[in-house]
Amino acid sequence: MRPSAITRRTLLRASLLSGAALTGCSSVRAGLLSTPPDPAVVSYWNLFGGGDGVRMRQMEDAYRAANPHLDLQAVTLAWGNPYYTKLALATVGDLPPDVAAAHLTRMKTLVQGDLLEELLPEDLERHGLTADRFNRRAWDAGLVDGRVYAIPIDTHPFVLFYNTEICDEAGLLAADGTLAPITGPDQFQDALTRARQVTGRYGATHGINSDTASPWRLFQTLYAQLGGEVLAEDGTRVVLDDTKAVQVLDYLRTLTVEKGLMPGSVDYQGAIALFASGAAGFHLNGEWEISTLQTAGLPFSMALVPHVFGDEYAVQADSHTLVLPVRADRDRAGLDRALGFVRSMLDQSLTWAEGGHVPTWQPVATSDRYAALTPQSHYASAADAAVYDPPGWYSGSGSNFEIVMGAAVGAVEAGDLTPTAAVAQLRAKLGELAATPPPV
Amino acid sequence: MASTDTGRQGRPALWFLAPFLVLYVLFIVGPAIYGLVMSFFHTSMVSTGLGEFAGLSNYAEALSSADFWSALWHTVWFTILTTPPLIALALLFALLAERTTRGRWFFRLAFFLPYVLPSAVVALIWIWMYTPELGLLSRAVSAIGLGEPNWLGDPDFAMVSLAITTVWWTLGFNFVLYLAGLAEIPRELHEASAIDGAGPWQQIRLVTVPLLSRTTSLVVVLQVIASLKVFDQMYVMTQGGPNFATRSALQYVFDVGFTDFRSGYAAAASTLFFVVVLAVSAVWLVMTRRQEPEL
Q1: Closest alpha carbon to A152 in A170, A183, A131
Q2: Closest partner CB to B153 (pick from A88, A92, A414)
Q3: Domains A38-152+320-359 and A156-317+381-435 belong to one CATH topology
Q4: Where does the signal peptide begin and end (chain A) (predicted)?
Q5: Residue B88 domain-assigned?
Q6: B208, part of any domain
Q7: What CATH number has the domain spanning A156-317+381-435?
Q8: Average pLDDT over residues A14-36
Q9: Cβ separation of A410 and B65 shorter than 8 Å?
Q10: Is the model more confident about A79 or about A150?
Q11: Is residue B51 domain-resident?
């Protein structure tokens, strides 16, 4: 038999060689051999995809251009739970990045697990990162026992998108072409009714199927306007106000099941698609969907979610923060490199704001250039009225708390649960979580 | 001599098996044992080590949790919904594909093709087909004048929709197993039965299906285990919703382990689930051993 061109020996040799070539990659070698990190490297993990991802890369490139002697190694990981799992495991395993992005409402659990570096005032001051240069609300919301562990780079509220052509035809625009103020439950319902008369389909949309976040955000906005709270004492006590919760759920049920002003069964993408195709005059979502809708090319603008209930305005929001995971080998120079990177990101807040996020960095937030950025600056005041998910180990962006809350609210909007039954379900599920000993 | 042969071949065989065994122990057996140990501790994702000893309290919590039991039932319900059609349809299509004389390769390929797709791709395609009002299926169903079911939004119907997707996607695997089984049946048997006056339906019922019994028992075991392992479809298509109606046992484990950082409790829940899968497989194996004709 004629020997084949590739013998077993050559194949083995080739695979050994390629294996050696792979391990030649510096990060793998560092990981395998635990060599000390290169002093000129800043590693950065984030979870930004879509339009945010594009703008974050622009900001990273600007940092690289300004710091040619440093090697910025930026890694973008999938959004949500997998991200926090990886960040926690990398830190526990003592190979974390220098800087990482984290939601303000998720980073507190990491603090309780001793995974984040406390940022001391004197270190922050060296880089000009003082409390008075940040949005007060975001800064205070991020403190843990009065200490700083995270630098908020934005506030990202739940907002109201509106189709300017449909709203114009429905007579909902003010003289300057922006949405006329809507206050109170009747006015909001009336606005949706008039928008529906134009579209012939719906007044507004938001994601419900397989999207627990949007129902939760809408509920939290209206419930917080009534002054309601869900959890207290770091999540160990459920303080849900049944009367207020039922009031909000009744209202949402009226808008969906009874009046059909909003579809009670549509997923996140479908809700956007209905709005983008002109089947609805309004769309409720996080401001980050601005990029999607700009690409879709429909005539739209953005405003605060209306003040529907209560005396004091409130709106659900979260903040992206930058944190420094604990690492044993961080010296003062390493700390300064990391904080320098954070400062660079803050200085580029205007780029970041294009993606819809309200800057927390006051030098940008109060600038004329940001004021001229529309429709983004229309809802900038949301940052001062922001309501964050309540503290608790099971709470925060993308957490089981949001899933439990959003599932019940969504079931009411779909007509599967009555408001009273939804509140009973919430009490049962939250009670179980509150009674569970925290894993941190 | 057979015995000395195996003795002499034992050592080289071990060397050839070594690459597999090393990976198997390192990535399957090792973690499984570690998971079992972890289930007796309050292990947390956000701290090092096993944590505080928990005894059986994780198991007690899982067994008394309504969420755990309902997730387990969802997995069983999914298995009940998917297994019969995945076996019956695979057999039917294999018989039909076997009978075609022209373009047989096309039918074989057509039924197997969806199986090649990754679960995430399948899920995304079907999410679009199920989209209320805008989706392909919704339009098709309304066009023939039927009331459109709320495919993924109705808690009573969502699991059926997931089952339909899964049948379309994974049918090809059982189909191929049945094709292989059919190819093994000697042609003479069909010829002999035809001479004895058996019609096509009698041939299928009395010759083909009994001779496929080995294939069928293999297909059933593999299918039941595959269905019990369901996670991807729900995770991508419904996130376990609406209102937790499609949260499977594995997603429950994922939620408590990765979202809540409670690795110890998640390990206990998955150990319980493992016991269920093991029991189902064992019962089935015993049943088929007894029935299986000596061939």
Answers
A1: A131
A2: A414
A3: yes
A4: 1-30
A5: yes
A6: yes
A7: 3.40.190.10
A8: 47
A9: no
A10: A150
A11: no
Within 8 A of A408 by CB-CB distance, chain B residues are 243
Question: Rounded distance, CA A430 to CA A418, Å?
Answer: 18
Residue in B with minimal Cα distance to A90: B46
Cis link prior to B242 (omega < 30° from 0)? yes
Nearest to B153 among A265, A399, A428 (CB): A265
Contact list in B for residue A411 (CB cut-off 8 A) is: 155, 242-243
Q: What mean pLDDT value characterizes chain B?
A: 89
- A8 band by pLDDT with thresholds 50, 70 and 90: low
Residue B185 domain boundaries: 66-291
Partner residue opposite B244 with nearest CB, options A208, A407, A436? A407
Residue contact B258–A82, C-beta within 8 A: yes
Report how many Cβ contacts below 8 Å link chain A to chain B. 119
Question: Which residues in chain A have Cβ-Cβ distances shorter than 8 Å to B127?
Answer: 267, 269
Q: How far is CA B37 from CA A26, B33, B42, B249, B271, in A?
A: 35, 6, 11, 20, 10
Q: What number is the ipTM of this complex?
A: 0.81
Closest by alpha carbon to A196, among A168, A170, A165, A164? A170
Between A188 and B136, name the one with better pLDDT. Answer: A188
A31 pLDDT above the threshold of 80:
no
Judged by average pLDDT, the poorest of A29-43, A351-365, B171-185 is A29-43
Residues of B with Cβ-Cβ distance to A269 under 8 angstroms: 127, 131
Chain B interface residues (partner A, CB cutoff 8 A): 42, 44-48, 61, 65-67, 127, 131-134, 150, 152-155, 237-244, 255-256, 258-263
Residues 6+ apart with CB under 8 A from A115: A87, A88, A91, A92, A96, A325, A326, B46
How far off is chain A from B5, nearest CA to CA, in Å? 25
Question: Span A38-152+320-359: which CATH code?
Answer: 3.40.190.10
Q: Domain total for chain B? A: 1
pLDDT digits (tens, 9 = 90+) for B215-251: 998 899 899 999 999 999 999 999 888 989 999 999 9
% of chain B surpassing 70 pLDDT: 95
The terminus-to-terminus CA distance of chain A in angstroms comes to 66
pLDDT score at A291: 92
Residue B165: give its domain's CATH number.
1.10.3720.10
Q: Do A210 and B45 touch (CB under 8 A)?
A: no
Which tokens in the block code for residue B167?
């049948």
Domain boundaries, chain A: 38-152+320-359, 156-317+381-435
The answer to whether the bond into B114 is cis (omega within 30° of 0) is: no
Structure token pair of residue B254: 């994922």
Which residue of chain B is at minimal alpha-carbon distance from A422? B243
* Identity of residue A314: A
- Looking at the domain assignment, is residue B43 inside a domain? no
What is the pTM for the complete model shown? 0.87
